[in-house]
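The following record pairs a protein chain with its ligand, magnesium ion.
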Amino acid sequence: MSEVTPRSVLAELASGTKPRRDTYEGWQRYRTTRGQFLAAPILTFTQWRAMSSSERSLYDLHRTATHVNLPLQETPMSLRVGRLVNRRLRNNALKQNVATRPGVMVSGWGYQGKTETVCEVAAAFEDAWLELHHYLNPDAVDGTNDLHAPVVYVQTPVTAKPKSTCQAVLDFFGASTRGMSLPRLMQQVAQSLSDHGVKALILDDINRLRMHRADDQDTLDLIRAFMSMNVTLILVGVDIPGSGLLRDARWDARQRQWVMDPSEHARVHGLEATQTERRFDLVELDRFRTSTPEEATSFQAHLRGIEAHLRLLKAKPGMLTGGAMPEYLMRRTSGVVGVLERLIEDGAQEAMDSGKELLDENLLDEIVISLDDPSRDPSTGEIPPIPGRGTSSRTAIVNKGARSRRKNTVFDDRGPAAAGTAG
Ligand SMILES: Nc1ncnc2c1ncn2[C@@H]1O[C@H](COP(=O)(O)OP(=O)(O)O)[C@@H](O)[C@H]1O
Ligand SMILES: [Mg+2]
């Protein structure tokens, strides 16, 4: 193994690759180290110039690492989603009545922060749960051979089917499942979730489930079965209302929840089908908008937060928030949080490389936003459209707005018809 030095650690951080969360070890590492990154100290241009060349190159590496590891900031959109997910997790975990644990669906287009928001809430829930658990019954966990895993994070495989989805859940625990039948896999999943004290099962990128074939019923039954396993099921994905996942569900206007009736089959994937209906909250994680003064203020606050973490040596206060800059950034990114971060990240690198050491429209105009990411499936909308460089992005924004408006109809109390139009 290569030697671990400050430089090697920084080089890894500066690469911007996010560690995996879809294994027990990966998730624990994420949970226990999140938010711990220390930004590079703030130096003046004169102080920087006075450094030796090796000090300076280490400091520059630290600046790059700082720019690609901008902290998560609370936004009005993430707060709304976070509150709901947290409420469900907490209430369900404390509930004795096992029959009625509502799940949560978090929907939104790519790069809007779904994964980061949900993981942050789930990790904070796990921190609190472990503390409470330890406080109530410190011996309960130590005595068993099984890992205690209150949260399981799973990325749905591309073109997933019920079998591969179950395998992905078991992979979190490193369990070998080759050659098992679906009923056997389901039993394994139920057993694992129970053995490891799982309270929350997150299925991210659920839009990858194939929902347009004859055996879709299998998939919907799979969701029902997961919900019978005494966990809070959190489904996260692009355009859930349009995905077919709500096909079997009806809208309960009074409770403002989606309801899935029990399966018509007596046994589902080898498990006893329960006769209880399944309930879901559906919440949309939106992008930034600036059509009202409050929205514009929130966007400004977010930009101010980013600015505070940039380490550019000739930056002036208000670099991102002053003049026409917020409007420019909105035009370049459509207010999509992940696209904005990427533009700033790449712009900051260019500002360092060129010696300009600040961000302005001229510099950012030269940055082509690239969202190539092998872990994303472009065919399912996980990568959003980017407004063209130099061209008016109005079309892209208007189109996205129109789509969002249509999607948002699921929040109106229009009953089952909404499910029909969304599917
Ligand atoms: N609340 C936030 N504050 C700052 N940056 C964020 C926030 N949410 C997301 N991001 C950035 O956006 C990027 C994309 O977010 P992600 O959660 O992967 O989006 P999605 O799952 O919706 O595609 C992340 O890598 C992160 O850098
Ligand atoms: Mg995601």
